[in-house]
Amino acid sequence: MRSPISASPLPQAAPAANDGQASAAERLDALRRMSGALTHDFNNLLGVILSANERLAAELAEGSEAQRLALLALEAAERGAELLRRTLALGHEPAPELDAVDCGEAMRTVRRMARQAIAPDIRLKVCLPVQPLHCAGDRTGLEMALLNLCLNAGHATPAGGAISLDARQVRLDRSDRLGLAAGDYIALTVRDTGAGMAPEILARATDPLFTTKATGTGLGLSSVRDFAASAGGALSLWSREGHGTTATLHLPVVAANALSAAAA
Question: What SS3 class is residue 38?
């Protein structure tokens, strides 16, 4: 199913005198100026959506497909409200504290949302971990990062293609490529069988405002990269034209004994 909302192009700045970096900085500045008012207004609209879907879900037949969709819409709106609350609090509240996130639970949420947003003729396979896996981060941030990766994969994958999401624990030696210290990490990987990216596109894929889509904002992959960095991890991308793309989030493992200590 195609999303009913298309992203409008970001404001265009005047041509840069030297190179594209100045132009990108001007566009980011324009985006910051607009974001406060837009966030406030969108928060009001989300309040209406939350209220309407809550009432709708309560009135629909228990266990029906219609109720399932209403509850899914309510869940997505609640996640959106949380992200907007964080946006409004920027500069006034500290960033969300890192927590122990249950990767399997986050993947279940992403599966529900992604399946509704990705075209039905594209297969989506989510391989939930057999044993509980917990990583550093915050639940909403991880869900939005994985959803971003799945939706990007959906946009790049033709009818009949496939997208997969899986998680596993890995041991990394010190990685100069990822900028991570040696240790145990959870690797959450999204793979697609889409068109893939040329090397010059791949090199800029996480740059803020860089996009190859007419209606894209160029903020999706950069936000995923920033989330990973804030949790002490990293995002890696592999892609080859005609062979699809693989995106992997490496996030520090939170051990079971640490969870037990926190609960006590």
Answer: helix
Q: How many CB atoms lie within 10 A of CB 189?
A: 19
Residues whose CB is less than 8 angstroms from the CB of residue 203 and which lie 6 or more positions away in sequence, other chains included: none
161 confidence band (pLDDT: 50, 70, 90): very high
CA distances from 46 to 66, 74, 77, 181, 244 (A): 20, 10, 7, 40, 35
Given the candidates 3.40.50.460, 1.10.3210.10, 3.65.10.10, 3.30.565.10, the CATH classification of the domain at 99-263 is 3.30.565.10
Q: C-alpha distances in angstroms, 203 versus 132, 197, 200, 249?
A: 34, 9, 5, 17
Q: Can you give the pLDDT at residue 257?
A: 56
Q: How many CB atoms lie within 10 A of CB 251?
A: 28
32-54 pLDDT, tens digit per residue, is: 666 665 665 676 677 777 788 88
Residue 95 has pLDDT above 60, yes or no: no
Residue 170, SS3? strand
Higher model confidence: residue 115 or residue 165?
165
CA distance 244 to 261: 42
What are the CA-CA distances from residue 69 to residues 5, 62, 217 (Å)?
18, 12, 27
Domain ranges within the chain, ordered by starting residue: 20-88, 99-263
